[in-house]
Amino acid sequence: MRQFISLLFIAAALSGVSGVSSVMATASDGIASSSAGPAMPVTVPDTMAERVKPCTVCHGQADRVGRDAYYPRIAGKPEGYLFNQLRDFRDGRRYYRPMTLLLANVSDEYLREMAAYFSALRQPYPPPEQVISSPTEIRQAQKLIQQGDATRDIPACIECHGKQLMGTAPFIPGLLGLPRIYIAAQFGAWKNGGVMRGQESNCMSDIARQLTIKETNAVAAWLAAQPVPENAEPADVLSPEMVQRCGSIVQRSADR
Amino acid sequence: MKIAVVATAVAVLAGIGLSPEIAGATSPKKQAKVERNATPLSSVLLQQRQARGAYLARAGNCIGCHTAQGGRAYAGGRKLSTPFGTFVTSNITPDKATGIGDWNEDDFWKALHEGKSRDGRLLYPAFPYTEYTKITREDSDAIFAHLRALEPVVQQNPPSQVASRYDFQPLLTLWRAAYFKPGVYQADPTKSTEWNRGAYLVQGLGHCSACHAERNPLGGMIGRKGDDKLGGGQIMGSNWYAPSLTSSLEASTAGWPVEEIVQLLTTGISPRATTSGPMAEVVSQSLQHLTKEDARAVAIYLKSLPETQSHQQVNPPAQAEQLQAWLRYGARIYKEHCQDCHGDSGQGAPGIYPPLAGNRSVTLTPPTNVIRSVLNGGYPPSTSGNPRPYGMPPFAQVLRDGEVALVLSYIRNAWGNRASLVTTAQVDKSREGITER
Predict the structure, then answer these.
(1) What does the longest C-alpha to C-alpha distance in chain B come to?
(2) Which of B119, B251, B255, B372 is the most exposed place for a label (fewest CB within 10 A)?
(3) Angstrom distance (rounded) from CA B59 to CA B299
(4) Which of A65, A90, A120 lies at the terminal end of a domain, its last residue?
């Protein structure tokens, strides 16, 4: 009975919501009544650039710090990778609420088109960051990147991200031209039980979880300090062993 | 109640079917059904029935509620939050342990028609059986045939978070006595077949009133006129207002050409209106799949609905000096952030960027939806009729609450629009709501 009454109570309180009362008394006359004749419809270019305007308010020419988050650049990243991220945001597997809401009713086909558009977009990379790292940190970073750590079953970053670290088409993104804080934040997201970047574990989150904070900071700093090579392109073949490791990412995309 | 549940459990354990007395099901066709079940349908007939069922399930948007975000289709687990608690949808794939693999046509009919689970438990009306009760037995059987043909998914969903079942069941009994009348749709012989088909889809399978009804404190719908419970209301537990489909100040389509109504429902966009939020989902998951004939029938029915007074009052602001200054500031924000798409006089690009002048969604008395539009932006749904829609950027990260209030107050009172001002507090409240779907 108690619950019954409290239910009624809650419900009654809620029903007050729809009867929004207005602050203002009734008006006498209009404020900006249209005077001119009917206006011509806005002309809208039939292009992808126009269709992705909602994206470019955040993802501009360069990475930048927004009011609520860090907005990474997306231009030039591998198409399959971008598509996977977009689908993950839409379906709640990668967490950033504004993008989830924005993409709620967008079909897979259209997401693919958006991914292709941004992937083909060529924008200049930012200059390397000025970061101060100790020689030990540099050595640690270079070792992980070039050789990995067999004792912990961590392959070298270049095995997947390409010799030039510009990624491997179509699913693995490049690691150069990314700001240090973005890289560090991604590692943080993978390590924190994948709340931000997917609950399911995959080849990348498995590695991230093994690295210490010191190591990820060293790697992020080293990567951000490298210039992006001229005419850099992603590698195009992933070794069968790495394909195997990254099955969930490579396969999931092939399903559709 | 407990006795019935115990009895059911005993019956199930003993491997005997439920007797109609215990279950309270007294379908006169019961006997015939049993016989029909006994003779298997020819495979062609069965396939036809499954295909019909698949279509009807689309029209009822079963998949929308019974699929979790990014989850397996029909395996349930989607959470619906309401003031009564968080309801979790059931797995309705034919898995025996976690789905409805053990159900027969009669069990299924009882769920849709009477809102009772196989074990006799009264189902929560978050499952819109108050509308589905209008579905015919034939259509129910077809939907069941479709669900039976799905691949079983083993998925145990968490229970709904509500007052414990035994406390809630008596409340449901009361609620049902007051607000639920089981009964298949009865055709109105004075109306055309097409109109009746539309009424059947809107009142029954389409369950439009699940969102578009005005609700009283108990979650019961208030029908103003007969069965047309479409007077508009705040969707329970969400920050969306589903406008009245019977008021010309809100979303009545009485004055529209039928083609435009069809266009809105099946493509998500039309020269005068654009769907967003929950309505965009209904369009993309359900309405876009309607046949031309059914979409037209729905449109004819909607167009015929008699005008009812909007229960929302229109209280346009008075013309004080201070107010003029505010609105000028709103106009500046508009010019900087909105005009490129929506035009210098709110004319937009119909079918692409919605006009804001004369747009009833903009002037709806509760500003809930427009606040959401501006804070979150969004794309109208991708549909086969409009596969690559243009979108609206989110402004939550760009404009402050006060600026959103100003620009909205402006567009609600410019170009001949007339509506109440939007306050900073209202915008702030909506920001909280963004954490929900």
Answers:
(1) 80
(2) B255
(3) 14
(4) A120
CB A24 to CB B84 under 8 A?
no
Residue A37 domain flag: no
Between A240-244, B197-201, B306-310, B335-339, the lowest mean confidence (pLDDT) is in B306-310
Q: Which residues of A touch B217 (CB under 8 A)?
A: 8, 11-12, 14-15
Q: Cα–Cα distance between B401 and B434 in angstroms, integer?
A: 14
CATH number assigned to the domain with residue range B321-433, chosen from the 4 options 1.10.760.10, 1.10.1740.10, 2.115.10.20, 1.20.1270.360: 1.10.760.10
pLDDT, tens digit, for every residue of B274-312? 999 999 999 999 999 999 999 999 999 999 999 887 666
What's the token pair of residue B232?
């508009």
Tens of pLDDT, residue by residue over B19-45, are: 333 333 334 444 444 445 556 778 999
- Under 8 Å CB-to-CB from A137, ≥6 apart: which residues? A217, A218, A221, A222
Please state the ipTM of this predicted complex.
0.83
User: Using CA atoms, how far apart are residues B107 and A238, in angstroms rounded to an integer?
Assistant: 53
Decide: pTM greater than 0.90. no
Same domain, A231 and A147: yes
Question: Range(s) for CATH 1.10.760.10 in chain B?
Answer: 321-433
What kind and span of H or E run contains A33?
none
User: Which residue among A120, A144, A171 closes a domain?
Assistant: A120
Instruction: Indicate the residue of A11, A55, A104 with minimum beta-carbon distance to B219.
Output: A11
What's the pLDDT tens digit per position in B354-407?
999 999 999 998 999 999 999 999 999 999 999 999 999 999 999 999 999 999
> What's the pLDDT at B83?
73
Note whether A75 and A139 are same-domain residues. no
| Residue range of the domain that includes A223 | 135-250
- Residue B220: what pLDDT? 62
Within A121-246, residue ranges assigned H as helices are 135-146, 157-161, 180-191, 203-210, 213-224, 240-245
Q: Which residue of A has its CA nearest to B346?
A: A39
In this predicted model, what pLDDT tens digit does every residue of A200-227 receive, in sequence order? 788 999 999 999 999 999 999 999 999 9
Q: Nearest C-alpha of chain B: how many angstroms from A22?
A: 6
Average pLDDT over residues B154-174: 79
- CB of A5 within 8 Å of any CB in chain B? no
Q: How many domains does chain A have?
A: 2
The CATH number given to whatever domain includes residue A218 is: 1.10.760.10
